[in-house]
Amino acid sequence: MSIERRKERIDRPIKAVTDDIFCLSSIREIAYLVIPRMLPVLGLLLLAFFVPQYWRKVMVITFVMGMMALSWDFMASCGLTSLGQALFFALGAYSAGAMNHYFGLPIYLSIPLGTIIGAIISTACIYPTLGLRGIYFSVVTLIIPLMLMRIVETTGIFGGTEGITGLSPFPGIIVTMAVSMIALWLTFFGLRRLIDSDYGHIFVALKDNDRAVEASGLSIRWFKVQAIFIGSGVCCFSGAFMTHYYMSIGMSAFAIDLSIFPIAASVVGGMGTLAGPLLGAIILGPLSEALRAFGSYRVVIYAALLGTFIVTLPEGLFPYLARKYQQIERWVEAPGGISED
Amino acid sequence: MFLSVLVYGFINSVILVMVALGFSITFGISRVANFSHGGFYVLGGIFTWYGLIKMDLPYFLSAILSILIIGALGALMYRVVLVRLKGLELSEVIATLSLGIVILELLRGLGVFGYEFRNPVFIDGSVDILGVGVGIQRIIIVCAGALLLILLHFFVHHTKMGLAFRGVAQQEHTALSVGINPNLVSMLSLAMGSIMCALSAVLILPLGVISVDEGYDILIKALAVCIIGGLESTIGVLVAAFIIGYIEALTSMYISSSLTSVVPLACMLVILLIRPSGIFGKSKEIEERV
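ok -> structure tokens follow
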């Protein structure tokens, strides 16, 4: 009879020290905490200097997509699982485009204004659906952008199928990169801090137990409105940024691939961790660029990847990596056998 | 003028009923929101087209075959993918949505576009109803829709299988304890939903061209109808389809045909504001509403 074994996971001593004792006593402990946080920031910064021009553009797109993934993950952590992130992207894009095209505002005004106005319109669009939760909310958010796309197509508002072209461009690739990179890190660290604050705990509670929020005398709807405003604001910024980057805006902003990308990035990276979606976007962004030659099959590959990950590795890559970093795994004998529970 | 709104609104509504019924049945029984509905719809049309045009099968045979294939695909999707995700609603949604997108975008990549891709109507010609000329295909759709509803009612309320379906829909655990296998029933409900989806594709697609965007359109329409009617209620689907169908017909006749696309969205948002669970949503306000 063979001895049954089980896998045991124990936190590394250094993790216990850095977690609980707020006095870091050695370079090694500081490095343990700082390196995982600084490595991506510095790595991307260095990469931006050394890659050729073409791949800089890819990096910009990746950063923007990373922001969308972060915003999706933030909203999902608040229990608002949207399947239509493209709605927010497109509203931000159209607001900024309209500001620039119809009112002639310069780029440094049209992007912030587009972001805020887009977020307000998005929140207003989503407001009727806030009475729903879980899957019902997802269903509604999936179809709103697709319907708006049909409306733009058939009624011809905002340039209809042609879109609006000839918007003001960014001054140069350096500015574009700097803006997108700073915005990405601000979003990432800002949202992380927000989720960890007392205020952010209310958002997380919306997902975990919304009755508890109501029982605490807080209005669920009002906090959902705030969560939508923050989450959609990030996406609207992405949209506003991308319109000026491409110097045009069209119906494709509502397209389903923009809704799928943030979900795919979050699922691949690991939902609910914020760092996961970022990792996912950094993997999927260049991948999608490399697959550009495949045209419409690109979306197929995303969607297939998404389906595969959700079935086979639902926790995602980031929690897996974090576990390896923080814990020791070893096989130990289980004399009593492994219980089935 | 008014009569034509009456007739075409009716036909439009029946089309919406047929499109939404498959989604609503699946969701009502197994709680799986089958977002690959649009993909199955277009795939059903394409299989029929392929059998008819490329393989020279008789129309009837090719239609039946494609309906059966789509039904099997639905069952397979449950067996292979969804059974592993049971209870994880969000994962189910993402999995079915991604499958639907894979199907649709794959078809787009394979070049499904243009007038070449169209199924012929069953019987050519038209008849006058209330002084309005109506193609025979549309009359067939209406008859088939009515027949389908009657069959469905009979199946759900007067057969043992239907009883099992209702049992699982009400409470899985209790159903399990009286010897109904919920996994089997859920699989069959997915197959049934997919079969209805393919059937509606076979009937409705001859009115136009088979295109990938049609798949997304169908998904939108089915979801809008189901949300307005209440996601699991068949009566709700019927009522919501007639509301949207007639409002669309009225808009296109009296205001502007380009505004018809606004109708479902506007209806949906208004209904959601007033009654979040839909017109006939069973009073689950405490569960759904916040």
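Chain B is about 70% helix and 5% strand.
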